[in-house]
Amino acid sequence: MKHCKQCGQENKDQKFCVNCGAKLDDSSQPQGNAGGKQPKKPMTKKQKLAAVVASGVAILFIALYFIGAHFTSHERLVKNFESAVNDTDAKKLAKTLNFQDVDEKIGAADVKGFLEYLKENPDEAGSMIESLHEQSGLISGKGKQTSNKEELMEMFFPSGEAPLVMIEEGNGFLFFDTYKLTVEPSYVTLKTNVEGTKLYAGEKEIAEAESDDYTYEYGPLVPGLHTFQAVSETDFIDLSKEEEIAVMSAEKDVDLSLDATYIGFDVPFEGELDSRVVYNDETIDFNIFDEEGFGPIALDESSSIAVEIDFPWGTMTSAEHPLDRREIPVSFEVDKKLQKSLEEALQDHVDLYLASWQKNDVAKLGHLSDSLQETYQYEIESDNESAGNGYGYDKQVISMLLDTDNVQVDFTEGDYYLSTIIKENVATGFYDKYDDADREESEYNEELKYTFLYDKKDWVVYDKNTSYSDLISPAELAVSSDLITLGSAKTGKRANAEVSSESNNDADSDEAEEVTLDYVYQMVEAINDNDYELVAPYIKSRSDFEKTQTELVDHLNDSEMTQEVIAASITDVKEKDGKWIVTTDETIKLIYESGEEETEDYEWEYTVEKDGDSLVLSGIE
């Protein structure tokens, strides 16, 4: 054996030291007893330092191994999960969990619903923790767990009603195996029914509905309790719906449809009109003719709805209706202004009808419907024929009531029509005109549906028919007439009409009445047309009366004023010195160039005399 002089290493027959590489020679052989043990050479400081460092590194590696094994162990993950669940520690749980197959980090806010669910369902929480311990045991016992989710679910949650938290292998760290807890992500499909509705997950706005049939998929979510809300805010109503649901599966549908609808209005006409909706006494700028439906809004019987419409004659407001249906009927109420207009139209109609009845001439009733014209024509001709056979008729309109709450408006072929119920109180009499000792009138009431036509700027009666409806809100109208007699010269107030004088020549007296009434109507036509010849046949030629009436026609035409006969009736006829003094009551509408109107009542005494075979007017007072 050779001993190295440098390090003391024993070598066999080598030429160089196997430890330090120094050259060996024969003198390196040990002295003395060849079979004896050679003493060790003491270690140098360098050798001692190297030995300490080597020992420290070994210890460090051992410590790191145990530390790494601890921090990467599946047992530690399971304990952290169990601790976080028991302590309801969202931050700690969020650091523990990962989504399966989704590269998205889970935060503390994401697991709050998961913790709430487990808190409310402690049995499921216990089963979940137990499943993790058993999965960990499988890894420890077999070295590798099954990664088949279906097998794990069958093993730990055969009912399939709880989410499975799995232990999955990670990417590894150095020479350590790593693990992670994963949960299958959930996705919800939110549905709502009102365009513009905002959707919320908790307090976070996540979407806005782009249509009235809108769906939105939201996720990934950690399974658990989640709150979703739909909010729709408009100028007149706020609607919302909130749902707290347990999302425990991969997919979940959530219906956030609002209890809302769009309201339509049953309006029996169309037109380019401005309108507004009155909702719970609040006026809202919404045109029912331009827009499809009013809403979104919730049906509620305690709420009320009506509409305002700007018609050519003014604004009308429909009757209030409870908000209990999707189609609201529109019927109007009569305000004071409209009531006055209808009252004037009815009075004009009564006066015009009675004048036509007395004159046996329906020419002035041309604005009426065909059916009403035919009815009036038959009635007037029949009554006048009977009067010519020795009978007399009395007629008088005593009063009228108008239903202000049952008004319908129609728009047909460019014209507006308004209908409502009128209750007439009328007196009539039929008797032998040569022996009227037993003459008396009988009264009757009749409900009629009157239809009015809007003629440029005024209402006129257009039609009327029998009605079987009762008045809902009757309003008394200032509409009435004198007692008008057909077939006799007797006219005047009902029950007080007296004949001022009797003529021995009934035919001439009747003719004097007729020519006087003809003059009244033709004089107005002559003024309106600036044509004196229209009235000339009724005036005595070359009389002072002719001169004054000629000048009157010219003067009124120059002023551009027109007139309209509302009513004209004979109140008295006297024969004096071969002439007749005919007294009239006339109601004339004066229409000025400015468009202003006024109605005047006149009482005139006309002088009627014979001119050849005809009767003409020769004076007026």
Rg, alpha carbons: 56 Å
Question: Domains counted in the coordinates: how many?
Answer: 6
The main pleated sheet reads as: 7 strands, antiparallel
Percent of residues in β-strands: 35-45%
Helices and strands: which structural class?
A: alpha+beta
The CATH topology of the largest domain is what? Nuclear Transport Factor 2, Chain: A
Give the end-to-end Cα distance, rounded to a whole number of Å: 177 Å
Could you tell me the number of beta strands?
Answer: 31
Spatial shape: rod-shaped
The tally of helices reads 10
**CATH architecture name of the largest domain:** Roll
Detail the poorly predicted runs: 31-35, 63-72, 488-505
**Mean pLDDT across all residues, rounded?**
82
CATH class categorisation of the largest domain: Alpha Beta
Percent helix range: 25-40%
Present the secondary structure layout.
Elements: E1 2-3, E2 10-11, H1 45-71, H2 74-87, H3 90-96, E3 97-99, H4 112-120, H5 122-142, H6 149-156, E4 165-169, E5 179-183, E6 186-192, E7 198-201, E8 204-208, E9 214-221, E10 224-233, E11 238-247, E12 251-255, E13 261-266, E14 275-279, E15 282-284, E16 294-297, E17 300-311, E18 314-317, E19 321-323, E20 327-329, H7 336-359, H8 370-388, E21 391-403, E22 408-412, E23 415-432, E24 442-455, E25 458-466, E26 474-477, E27 484-486, H9 506-529, H10 544-558, E28 562-576, E29 579-591, E30 597-611, E31 614-620
Parallel strand pairs: 3-5, 6-12, 13-20
Antiparallel strand pairs: 1-2, 4-5, 6-9, 7-8, 7-10, 10-11, 13-16, 14-15, 14-17, 17-18, 17-19, 21-23, 21-26, 21-27, 22-23, 23-24, 24-25, 28-29, 29-30, 30-31
Helix pairs in contact: 2-3, 2-5, 7-8, 9-10
